[in-house]
Amino acid sequence: MIDLQTILGSKVNTAFRVNGLWVPASSLSSTMPSYCDPAVFYYDGYTPQNFFISGTAFRLSFQGKKVAVCTAHQMELLEADPNQFAVFTESGKKMVTSSQMIFARDQSIDLRLFDFSEPSKKGMLDDVVWWKAKREELHDPVPAAGKVFCVGYPGDRNLIDYEQNFFKQQPTAVWGEMCTPGMSDRLAFKVSGSIVDDPVGMSGSPVFGITVDELQPKCFWAGIVANASSSVFNFVPASQVGAMINHLTSKQA
Question: Of 52, 63, 9, 70, whose CA–CA distance to 223 is shortest?
Answer without folding.
Answer: 70
